[in-house]
Amino acid sequence: MVKENLSIVEQNIQTACKRAGRLREEVTLIAVSKTKPVSMIQETMEEGILDFGENKVQELTSKYEVLPKNLRWHLIGHLQTNKVKYIVGRVVLIHSVDSYKLAEQINKEAVKKEIICDILIEVNIAGEKTKFGVPAEEAYPLIREISKLKNLRIRGLMTIAPFVDNSEKNREHFRNLRQLNIDIKSKNIDNVTMDVLSMGMTDDYEVAVEEGATMVRVGTGIFGERDYSI
Ligand SMILES: *Cc1c(COP(=O)(O)O)cnc(C)c1O
Predict the structure, then answer these.
(1) What's phi and psi for 58, nearest 5 deg?
(2) CA 7, 12, 17: angle at the middle one, nearest 5?
(3) Label partner for 36 (CA 20 to 30 A): which of 57, 66, 120, 144?
(4) Helix (H, G, I), strand (E, B) or coil at 36
(5) Using CA positions, which residue lies closest to atom 6 of ligand 1?
(6) How far does the centroid of ligand 1 lie from the alpha carbon of residue 112, in Å?
(7) What is the Cα–Cα distance from 201 to 207, expressed in whole angstroms?
(8) From the alpha carbon of 32, which atom of ligand 1 is closest?
(9) Radius of gyration of the chain, Cα coordinates, nearest whole angstrom
């Protein structure tokens, strides 16, 4: 099943790239494996996918332990400061930084481990009450502050778009996030590269690719529906 699903997702990404005049290489597909067993991740690896996303620290670290070390783990869920130590050094990118306090803790851990940690700033682009992430207008001031932390590199922005019945409704949100990324990039801040835009999930990744996503996070579309009851 994973193999068939992957080939559909891959085809859709290619078609979306073509429509937008983009190169397929500009978009990284992150397979969101939360709640799914290690065996399914192995199946996915066999199809050449190396980027995996998890939203829980405990689940990520236990999968990290048993899987090959060439996998590229992405933390995409909310991160509590007391769990930062388990994540820094194990993931290639933390997508969900939305406060200075959290960034400070990540930096502290990166200093201790003598590494530079790549992060994205999570933006609540549609201003939904229930979502994590900073409001769009707070992204730039927050990035200015965080950029002073020497062991962090701010690679760009991430958003979780609203749940909608038609993915076209999220197009303007993706467009706004891309514009925000461009605006901040133009400020040329040290430690801030703004070359990554993490947006688009199973229901809207094609629209996100058309609007400039460089990373799409697809779970259900690859692994099938999640069962939270087990
Ligand atoms: C679960 C999750 C995804 C994947 O969602 P699907 O709709 O299953 O593709 C993407 N991003 C984040 C932050 C998630 O928590």
Answers:
(1) -60, -45
(2) 125
(3) 120
(4) coil
(5) 219
(6) 31
(7) 10
(8) 4
(9) 17
CB 152 within 8 A of CB 190: no
Integer CA distances (angstroms), 37 to 3, 32, 45, 55, 126, in order: 15, 12, 13, 14, 33
DSSP-derived secondary structure for 175-222? HHHHHHHHHHHTT--TTEEEEEEE---TTTHHHHHHTT-SEEEESHHH
Tell me which residue has its CA closest to atom 11 in ligand 1. Answer: 217
Ligand 1, pocket residues at CB < 6 Å: 32, 34, 55, 76-77, 160, 201-203, 217-221
Q: Which atom of ligand 1 is closest in space to residue 95's alpha carbon? A: 13
pTM over 0.85: yes
Sole residue written with tokens 């950029």: 147
Class of domain 2-223: alpha beta
Mutate to test the pocket of ligand 1, among 75, 76, 121 (most ligand atoms within 8 A of CB): 76
Element (H, E) at 105: helix 100-113
Query: Which CA distances in Å does 212 have to 21, 60, 185?
Result: 10, 28, 15
Q: Exposure of 83 by Cβ count < 10 A (0-12 exposed, 13-18 middle, 19+ buried)?
A: middle
- Mean pLDDT of successive 10-residue segments in the chain (230 residues)? 97 98 98 98 98 98 98 98 98 98 98 98 95 96 98 98 97 98 98 98 98 98 90
**DSSP structural state of residue 161:** P
Q: 214: left (phi > 0), else alpha (psi -120 to 50), else beta?
A: alpha
